[in-house]
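Recall that a protein's primary structure is simply its ordered list of amino acids. Everything else, from secondary elements to tertiary packing, is in principle encoded there. The following example makes that idea concrete.
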Amino acid sequence: MKRVNIHEDIENTLVMLQHRLRETGDRPTILVVKDYGNLPLVTCYASELNQVFMHLLNNAIDAIEEGVGSGESIFYSLLPTPQIRIHTEVTDLNMVKIAIADNGPGIEESLRSRLFDPFFTTKPVGKGSGLGLSISYQIIVQKHRGNITCTSSVGKGGEFAIEIPIEQQER
């Protein structure tokens, strides 16, 4: 456990995912909008938290790619610009909140209650293991004593919000 700059860790994760954000034959470049608040250093398990960022950002990219569908370039002008928004802030409860939102197709309400279950996936067979969000849940809730939530509307994208304490209590 160590004190880290959350924004640096998010930036490092984005660098690792740069190849997935670039324009492809199926879709334009995914725009990443950063709405960073003024965060203090956060005491956390940095490598595990980075794993959560990687899972959430990969899932956002997958959702956007699913939303593009067939990828007919003639339809690009009709679709909103593919976008991931990252918002950070300190909450009233002395927690750091990191929200990662996409403008993909969204997640049906009937599926949202199962998102953090091991081996549950909304992706096609062979695309996802169903472990990313389950592992993220364990890292945030069990290791960091925080919480992770998902809000989504079909057709309007989804948002995953993580909240962890700025300082971890001794175990």
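The chain is about 30% helix and 25% strand. The domain at 2-165 is CATH 3.30.565.10 (Heat Shock Protein 90).
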